[in-house]
Structures are given as structure tokens and as C-alpha cells.
Amino acid sequence: MIKWRRRSGKKNKKAENAEPEYDENSSEQEIASPESEQIEPDPEPEDTPEPDAEEILETEPVSADQIVPEDSIFPAGSEIDDPENGKKGSFIKRLKARLAGTRSVLTTRIDHLVLNIKEINDDVLDDLEEILITSDLGVATTQALLDAIGGKVARRELDSPQKLKGVLREEIVHTLDIPPYEPETAAKPHIILVVGVNGVGKTTTIAKLAQRYKQNGKKVMLVAADTFRAAAVEQLTIWSERVGVEIIKQQTGADPSAVAFDAIHAARARDTDIVLIDTAGRLHTKVNLMDELKKIKRITAREMPGAPHEILLVLDATTGQNAVNQARLFNEAVEVSHLAMTKLDGSSKGGILVAIAKELKLPIRYIGLGEQMDDLKDFNAAEYVEALFD
Ligand code: GDP
Ligand code: MG
Questions:
Q1: Are 269 and 229 in contact (CB under 8 A)?
Q2: 79 Cα: distance to centroid of ligand 2 (angstroms)
Q3: Which end of the chain, N or C, is less packed with Cβ atoms under 10 Å?
């Protein structure tokens, strides 16, 4: 492993052809400038987070033993039940079951509403508004959906209450149907930076992705750039052993960018295909999380132009509207490529996907439907809406 250490002074790395060293200031990794000889692993941040940002990012820390469930290890022979695997029927069935919480709030109530009305009038639209807001579709999305429905009613294109659900469905699919994110170039290693607040499911999602890529014949490396808590490094290490992939880590408190730096060089040397970087969700109060992530991104791009090839933001569906704020903050800081929405199985707030699509236009790449290894699914707008409404 390429170790991060302070620069020893006058050393010209290129001339000596030595192994690469982490130097956050040098843009070319050539002769270190006098300032870069003084690298501190944890520089003091200049700005403190806005109070509202702090509140948005505040979640309960989870300890390692809580988060690597003993019995959630993929049983021998378990396979990824991918929607693309020609098992569409059974997949939708399973999706439906996992989305039971959201279905009961959204679909059951809409069905009930439609059954009991004869025409679509303002009272019906008021009831519908309340249902949509309760399912966490958000005010903007709800308003847009009501406007679309109101317009159709006015134009007499929506003449029976029974068609209401169909129109709603169409509008929701349309909102969710955002062109997928495509990295500009295919690269090896392909570097995925995974970000999100504590407890949303970053580390578990990384384990699930590692498992998937490995099953697809890829050589995978995990990177423990959540160096703030010892438990976080431990948790990722356990996953790397269970999935059977490599891990790059350093001691607790190390500069996350230095760990990422190590990983890129190690991945190149070891012919790795996929690098998954796990990051912290909340840092010590002195350190600004967003600055830290920006720095990881900057160092990664410097060491490998074009990297990170994906910035995957993980959001927890049970947090509801707060997820929209999180998405906005992370997107502003690091420019998110796409999203993974976890814990849809335990949530009645599945409408949040629609709210985020509407307000941020960020593509949803994965959905988490449980704690098992094969519970991370590719997101498909039509399937999701089918599972919610049928
Ligand atoms: P991190 O702090 O963002 O790295 O979050 P973790 O990956 O440690 O996950 C926190 C908890 O969420 C763990 O108990 C996971 O098992 C659980 N979790 C993650 N994804 C899902 C999901 O899709 N459904 C459910 N029910 N639990 C999940
Ligand atoms: Mg974690």
C-alpha cells in the first residue's frame, strides 16, 4: 500500500522515481513547495457550517456492531435478483411488498377517494392535495400534479374519477423520468465517491455495490475515507472481508483525502476496476463536512483527471422532506451525479423520490429495499410507479 506521509523536504519525486506521496497543495506532484512541506492532516476549516446545514446533517451515529447485521450476510448461492433478469413479474411483486408503507398512504387513500366521488371538483382536489403532501411528494410536486390534473379537468380530458389515478401515474412517471447520468469516459479504475449524512446507508450500499460488481467479474476496492470514527473503518473492513474485496484504510483521524490518494495509486498498481470511496456523514464540529468532501474530490481529480467518475449521494427515505435539503446541500458542494434512496422498505414516504426528482432533477440510480445484500435495486421509474399504484 502506498503510505501517506509528510514530505521529507527537498525530495524531487519525479527525479527519484519514488512512490507517490500525498501532497494536497502540489498540482503536479513535483517538487514540494515550502508550504506543502508543512501539511497538517486536519487543517482548520475557515468557515463553520450554517446552522440550518448543521441541523440538516445532524443524525444519530451508528456503531459498527449495530450496522453489520450478523444474519444479513448473503446466503450461499444468493443471486442478484435484478429487474433486468427476466424476472419482472416477481420483481414487481417484491417491490410492491417492500413499498407497502408508501402504498398504504398513497395508493390506498387515492383508491378510496376515487371510489367515493362522482366528479372531480375542488373538494376532490383538496383531498388529493392532502394525500400527496402526506406521502412526502413535497409542496412543489403536489402543486405541479394538481395543476396538471386541474388543466386536464378544465379541458375535459379527465372526465371520470377513475381516470384520476392514471393521470397521476403518468405525471409521476414523467417527473421521475430523468435521463441517467453517464460518466464522460470509461476509465480504469472507475472511481465512485459515495456521500451522504450519517446513518443513511452509505457503507451498506457500498457493500451491496461491491458485491454486485464482484459478481459481474470486476476487481473491486473499498476505501475507508470515513476516518472520523474507528467504528466506520471497522465496519467497512468487515464488509470487505465478507464480500471478498480489497480495502484501503489508514488510522482513525487520518486525512480522508490522503486515504483516497493512496487508493487511487494502489488501484492503478493492482489493476482494479472499481474503487468505492466511503466518506463520513458528520465530522467533528471543527471540521466542515462539505469542505472535506470537496477536498477529496479535488485530490481525486488531481491524481486521476476525470475522477471521481461518479458521485453517488445516498439518501434515507424515512427522513422525508429533509432528504430534499440534504440533496440540495450535497449537490451544491460536490455536484452529485445520481442518487441511491435507501430504506424504502421501512418508509411510508416513498413519495420523496418524486419530490427530489422534481426539485433537483437528479437521476435516481439505486433504491434500497432492505438490509440484505440483494436488496439494492436499479431504479426504474415505470416499475416504481407500477409497484406503487397497481
Ligand atoms: P452510513 O452511516 O451512511 O454508512 O449508514 P450504514 O450503511 O451504516 O447504514 C445504517 C443502517 O441502515 C444499517 O443498519 C443498515 O443495515 C441500514 N440500511 C441501509 N440500507 C437499508 C435499506 O435499504 N433498508 C433498510 N431497512 N435498512 C437499511
Ligand atoms: Mg458509514
A1: no
A2: 24
A3: C
In this prediction the pTM is 0.82
Residues 15-54: tens digit of each pLDDT: 444 567 777 776 544 333 333 333 333 443 444 444 455 5
Q: From ligand 1's centre to the CA of 106, what distance in Å?
A: 24
Residue type at position 54: E
Q: Whose CA is nearest to atom 14 of ligand 1?
A: 67
Residue 136 CB less than 6 A away from ligand 1: no
pLDDT in tens, 81-110: 454 455 667 888 999 999 999 998 888 899
For CA atoms 130, 136, 139, 141, give the dihedral sign: negative
Q: 148: alpha, beta or left, given left = phi > 0 and alpha = psi -120 to 50?
A: alpha
DSSP state of 150: H
Question: What cell was used for 169?
Answer: 401515474
* β-pairing verdict for 274-279 and 364-368: unpaired
* C-beta of 101 in contact with ligand 1 (< 6 A): no
- With residue 57 as reference, give the H or E element that holds it: helix 51-57
**How far, in Å, CA of 348 to CA of 83, rounded?**
22
- 113 strand-pairing partners: none
**Which pLDDT score, from 0 to 100, does residue 87 have?**
61
Residue 204's nearest CA partner among 379, 378, 80, 373 is 373
